[in-house]
Design goal:
single chain, 379 residues, 2 domains, 65% helix, globular
Amino acid sequence: MNDTKTLSVKPRDYLFDNYKALLITLVIIGHFIEPCYQNNDFLYTLKWLIVSFHMPAFIFISGYFSKRELPLSIIIRKLLIPYIVYEFVYYFFYIFVLHKETGLHLLYPKFSLWYLLALFVWRTVTPYVKKYPYYMPAAITAGLLIGLSGMQDNYLSLPRILYFYPFFLAGTSFNRDSITKFGQKYIRVLSAAGIVVFTAFFAFAPVCRSLSVKIFYGRYNYDFLEQDMTEGILCRAICYTIGFAMTFAVMMLIPERRTFYSYIGTRTMAIYLFHGLTYSYLKECTTILKNINTIPASILLLGGCTLLTVIFSLSKLTAFTNKVSDLKLPAAAAQTASLFFSFIWHWLRQKYTAFRWFLYKRKTNTNLTHIMFFYGGRF
C-alpha cells in the first residue's frame, strides 16, 4: 500500500523550485533597493535588470502551475481569503507598529498584496478567456490600452492585473518539454551572452537615464509616465518583449537538479508576506535604506536581502501561511463571492464594449466630448 502510494507521487520539478527561489530573492532585493537605487550606478543598473523580468517570470510560473481548472470555492479559499487576512495583518501593522494613518481598504491592496488579488482574478477568468480565439493578442492589447486609462492606479490593481495577464496566460500554455528540447549548451551560452549584453545596455544606454523604471511596473498610466499614447504603447510593447525574452533566457540557465536552495522555491508565500512587513518598517521608521550609497554598502544590503530570504523560509513561518490558505469558507460566503465575481465580469465586458466604441469613434474622427468611461473616468 505504501509502495503504491509512493510510486504514484509525482516527482518535483526542481527547475521551477530553483527559479522561484531566485525570483523571490530578487523580489526582496528589488523592494529593499527602491529607496536608494539612484544613489549609485551599481544599484541603478541592478534595479532596471530586476524589474525588467522578475514579476513577468514569477507570474509566468504561476500560470504554468495553474493549468488545472479549480472550483471557485477552492480559488477563494486559497487566494481571496488569504488576501483578506493579510490585508488585516498589514492594516494592524501599519496602525500599531508604524503608527501610519491608513484604512482597511480592501479594494486598494497594500504593498505587494496586489499579487494575491491578481492571482485570484487570473485563475478565475482564465478558463473563460481561453475559450475565445486569439485570447493572447487580446490580452496583450488590453495590457497596452489600460495605460490610456485615467482610473486610480491601485484600484483593485486592475492596471497591473491587465498588464501582467499575458505572462500568466503564456504560462498556462507552456510546454515543459521545450526547455529540455532547447536546452542545448549553445542555447545556454546565447542566453548568458544575451543577459550580459542586456545588462550592459541598462548600465550605459542614455535612454535608461531618461525613462523611469516604473515603465515595467504596469501600475502607472502613460500620463503619469509623461508619455503620449504612441510613445507609451510602443514603450510598453518593448517591455513585453523584454519580459518574455528575459524570462526564458534566465530559465535556460537555471539548474534542473535539486540544489541546497530548492526548498526556498516551495515557501515563497511566507517570504513574500514577511519581507513586506520588514521592508515597510525599515522604510518608514529608519533611514537605513535611504543611506546606502557606496558599493560595499550596496553589496552588504544584497547579502542582507539574501539572508532574509533564508530566514523567512523557515518552516514555522511557512506553517502560518499554509494555515491561512486552508481556512474553511462558509458556503454562503462562497455564493456571495460568486455573485460578486459575476457582477464584475459583466461590468468589465460592458467597459470593453464601450472602449471598442471609443476606438471606433476616434478612428472616424467623431467628436468624443460626451463619451465617458469608467463612470466618469477618462482615457
